[in-house]
């Protein structure tokens, strides 16, 4: 048991050293935490455009990505 705070970072730092722990924190901050928000934004944009553009059989992918990007920026 490691009596330090920091969660997984503390365990990785104790087991493998500072570099793998540092890389884990950056990958988590940049990729993992933001991927969930991107998936939610894409799903919401897809449903929103399908409701607005009912007459279209297929919603353009570029429009879905544009609305998702606007949602993420706001």
TrEMBL record:
Keywords: Membrane, Transmembrane, Transmembrane helix. Pfam families: AA_permease_2. One of its GO terms (cellular component) is membrane. The keyword NAD does not apply. Its main location: membrane. One of its GO terms (molecular function) is L-amino acid transmembrane transporter activity. It comes from the Eukaryota. It is found in: Membrane. It is a multi-pass membrane protein. This is Cystine/glutamate transporter. It comes from Portunus trituberculatus (Swimming crab).
